[in-house]
Amino acid sequence: MLITVTGLVIAERSLGESDKFIDILTAEYGVVEICAKGARKITGKNNASTQLLSYGKFCFSKRGERFYLNSSEPIRVFYEIRLDMKKLALAEYFIEISKYCVTTGQSAKDAMSLLLNSLHFLSEGTRSCEFLKSVFELRFLAEIGMMPQLIGCRDCYKYEAEEIFFLIERCCLLCGDHFYGRGFEENEYHIRLTKTVLHTLRYICLSDKNKLFNFKLGEQSQMLLNEITEKYILARLSRSFKALDFYKKICEDENTYLDGGTNENNE
Ligand SMILES: [Zn+2]
Fold first, then answer.
1. Whose CB among 18, 23, 116, 143 lies 3.0–4.6 Å from 110's, allowing a Cys bridge?
2. Residue 188 C-alpha to ligand 1 middle, in angstroms?
3. CA 13–ligand 1 middle distance (angstroms)
4. Do residues 174 and 154 make contact, with C-beta atoms less than 8 angstroms apart?
5. pTM of the model
């Protein structure tokens, strides 16, 4: 029996001289491991569509306990991402999150489309890595039913207040009166929001998915947003991500290099 799925190649492992195993992330079946015979040959008919970060249609059959690729057709190959270490690390992070959380059903379809859209902008380079990272982290949680409570202060429902705090571990907002009234203090998990960042958090969670990436943010706001979305996703999923650690290491090295300021290579 032939099974056809649409999915993204998220890992490849060599097998012998010309074959390989690929892991495909799909909305319907989660991650599927398929053996692709001859796919490593340059002239192999499945060569392009079975490479890392290829999104396509895969038709396979089951023999014994394994799935074998019959034919495939690339829809979009995010080739450019593989040429940039920072982008690749971020893509791996998005994939690690998706793999961990996506099961099946409508939320998997929405999460998958978020992943593909994020890879699209990452590949095009029209949005910064930091921007895409924070949008992905927060919207992904919203898609799988872990949206924080952002309508207003949890205690008085005030939509906007002079002072407003986001409590990472409680997933909610508190106005200044209720924040201090309950004896809370500002710290790394009790974060004071600016109006811009509050609006942005709401926008990321609630906007139509076709408009999700259509906003701009200043550098200060982007930094605050990034801090919040990263802490929030790590707290909600209660785990760390190897690819995130690697991504952050690359960013650090990049900053050290820029601070060093001796770039003589004027390309
Ligand atoms: Zn309040």
1. 143
2. 20
3. 54
4. yes
5. 0.91
